[in-house]
Design a protein that fits this description.
Number of helices: 6
Number of strands: 2
Helix content: 55-70%
Radius of gyration: 18 Å
Strand order of the largest sheet: 1-2
Amino acid sequence: NEGQKLEEQIQLYRSRFGFLPHKVLADRIYLNKNNCQYMESKGIVPTGKRLGRPPKQEKTEAELKEMHRRNEVEGTFGTVKMCYGAARIRTRLPETTEVAVAMSFLAKNVITFLRELIRIILCAPISFVFFLQNYKWFANILHASQFFKKHIP
């Protein structure tokens, strides 16, 4: 199952960014005993439902923020699967699958970018430069385009 690939994903993150992540926003399938021990040994904070009996105390504000962020990430995955074709990928080679998934995320990011751009142009008196400087996902679009230049002739 996909929960066994967490170590590989963390190492890919390290090779891409040069350091390990501080936190891992993960589904319950990734938070098995082996993965939690691995993350603890690397100093990574797992976020998600803990293993075992649920605690009796209320969730702190920080835990609620982490849960909100994780839900946002999972919602993005669901949107990409349902609306941008990631659930219908039927490629054979792993490299082709990576490109197809990246194309789905690129399409979602471009549509989101254009929708936000139109909203700002029509509804808000904020300058375009401010818009570009303050949206992190615009950098992701640029990074994805570099990925395609590298992998697609």
